[in-house]
Amino acid sequence: MAYWTDKVAIVTGGSAGLGRVLAESLAEAGARVVLAARNPERLDRAVAAIAEQGWTVVGVPTDVTEDADVAALIERTIVEFGRIDLLINCAGCSDRGLAAETSVERFQELLELNFLATVRCCRAALPHLIRSRGHLVNIGSLAAKTATRFLGASPASKFPVAAYSQQLRSELKPQGVSVLLACPGPIARDDAGQRYDQQAANLPDAANQPGAGVKLKGIPPARLAATILQACQRRKAEVVMPGKARLLFAVAQISPAAGDWLLNRFTKS
Ligand SMILES: NC(=O)c1ccc[n+]([C@@H]2O[C@H](COP(=O)([O-])OP(=O)(O)OC[C@H]3O[C@@H](n4cnc5c(N)ncnc54)[C@H](OP(=O)(O)O)[C@@H]3O)[C@@H](O)[C@H]2O)c1
Q: 16: Cβ below 6 Å to ligand 1?
């Protein structure tokens, strides 16, 4: 039997982008999938596209920044399927702006969505993941490990996801729960280069580019999803894509000045 067959997976942010591709890949691999996102029409469309293939899927309208919504998401999953084997925290967003000009409110907003919602969903799902000796996947970003220019509040809201994931990984290992942190670079998508038109209007052109001008090709989402699910199945600690970014992380730890130099060399200005 294939690894994901009949496992129960929740994907937050499962109605669009990477979350939707992860949800489709899991459903295709035989998992029973629960999609969580706010906009009910978009959620319904994503659910219908998966159900049409004959795969098992449920959509639960959820705002992951709300305690009550997340509690209801977990409860509905248990009522529907009786267990949880995998939680993927994928709901999140990036940002554009200069750090010095980014407001306290914007930092709060992104911390709420990118970090605190991850904590909230993990806490709610953990009793079930411990029971199933299951998997937790937190979608970070290269910006969870390195702070590129023009990314507004994004790096400061993603770095804590890396710290939290690392600590959880050690603490949950004895209970049989694996924790995977995924740190992708820019993901290929149809609206790349236009998503931040408004936020990047007064910034150099690079700011509106994927990854705020980082010189990397967009990662095909299906390839990223496959890599994440394989790493999750193998109970690995991290996925970094592209892998060469690890070199930058290591250099920056040893010499921040050399790290800055490398980062600026590999980003358009
Ligand atoms: N795109 C990239 O190049 C890239 C690169 C590195 C990392 N990432 C990370 O990968 C993840 C997915 O990014 P993406 O660009 O593929 O996403 P996306 O296309 O913008 O989709 C975001 C998803 O999250 C949901 N969402 C947003 N706020 C939510 C909330 N408060 N509660 C519940 N669901 C919410 C959205 O649905 P609703 O709006 O209907 O709620 C949607 O389903 C994010 O964590 C992002 O930081 C992306």
A: yes
187 lines ligand 1 (CB under 6 A): yes
CATH architecture of 8-244: 3-Layer(aba) Sandwich (3.40)
Q: Kindly list the distances between the CA atom of residue 222 and the CA atoms of 29, 94, 204, 235, in Å, as whole numbers in the listed order.
A: 13, 20, 31, 20
- Nearest one of 110, 7, 107 to 56, comparing CA atoms: 7
155 Cβ below 6 A of ligand 1: no
Find out whether the beta carbon of 212 lies less than 6 Å from any atom of ligand 1.
no
Both tokens assigned to 60? 């639960």
Alpha-carbon span 166 to 115, nearest angstrom? 14
| 12 touches ligand 1 (CB under 6 Å) | yes
Per-residue pLDDT of the chain (269 residues; tens, 9 = 90+): 599 999 999 999 999 999 999 999 999 999 999 999 999 999 999 999 999 999 999 999 999 999 999 999 999 999 999 999 999 999 999 999 999 999 999 999 999 999 999 999 999 999 999 999 999 999 999 999 999 999 999 999 999 999 999 999 999 999 999 999 999 999 998 887 788 888 888 888 888 888 888 888 899 999 999 999 999 999 999 999 999 999 999 999 999 999 999 998 888 87
The ligand 1 atom at the shortest distance from the C-alpha of residue 139 is 45
Are 218 and 250 contacting, i.e. CB atoms less than 8 angstroms apart? no
CA of 92 to the centre of ligand 1 (A): 4
